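Justification of resources, computational component.

The compute hours requested in this renewal are based largely on the per-chain cost of generating structure records like the one below. Each record pairs the submitted sequence with a full structure-token output. That output is archived, and it is also reused by downstream analysis tasks.
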Amino acid sequence: MKISKIKNSRPGISVTENKNEEQLSRQSLLYYAPVKDGKIRLESKDLEQHVTECNEKAQKLYNVITPEIDLCKEENREWIVEDLTKNFNAVINNALRSIKNPKEKREERVEKEVAFILNLNKNSIKIKKDVFVKSTDLIVKFSANNKYNKKNDKGTGSKEEAYIREMISNLVLRKLKKTLRKEVKLENGCKMQMTEITISLMSAICLYGNVESFDPVILKAFFEKVDSDYTKYKYVEQIVKSIESQSAKLKVVEKDGKHLLIPANADHRKKKYVFEFMRKYAAAEEKEKREITEHIQNLIGLYLCGKAGYENAENRFSNMTESHNCISGEIEEIFNEIEELENSSKQKRE
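The structure output for this chain reads:
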């Protein structure tokens, strides 16, 4: 779950007072971008609540089967796949959201979710806002006159059933949520693939309408995995700790009576000049930025040509391509690339 995708929050680092040690230090945090309700940053005490709320919003978009449908180009089969996806996701989401207390223990949640499925014929299923259906309405069928709605060649069952079974299998194998493509262990020690369980469960709900007789042991293993993937509550604490301990090579320094954050190696004997250039360039006006850029160009020319060649150049860096054949090709190539980038940038702005 990406915290920055919800509520326009961004990770950052600030200077904070450490009362225990009576000194200033760096502190990782989340802040609102743009400012929300006059509040810029999230205090540590608000951070866990913020992450929990983000998680709850993400749960509203949760689906076991990815809803993007691109399995069938044939129109009369495409809507079957859409209905299978919609109905199955609705049942699972209704089971997950039937738990009213979000902080309920995982074992208790799973037990109630299993009970919801086994008693599906007694429950109303919410398909969308203010639309509820019965379990019998979840069964997917072809229209009466469809070419698939006929007896198969052996005279047993129907082509419809065979085609829908095939579509369920393809749908689960291709569209089951990636985080659920795991192997689960049953109470009796046996192991099963989540894809195998999901195919059987979808068939029971959307094809045969007999989910009430589904094996509760297998159903429990299914919901232990799905519930954990849906709630993510065990990750909330880890996400909070991750935000609070963001890795950044910064240090707190005092300058002109103010405490600032600067790169940890900003005082390095070789690197400090780069940081000083970045600071000056960022704070400069347009004219001063051009002067700084020309100064850097001259330094590059001095480095490439040597002191004598640099002093003999009639017009410093701009004419060096003519007076120094040994490097003229390289410099001209650099100039061309810079010019192309500048022209491209101007066109985008216009």
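Residues 320-329 have pLDDT under 50 and may be disordered. The chain has eleven helices and nine strands.
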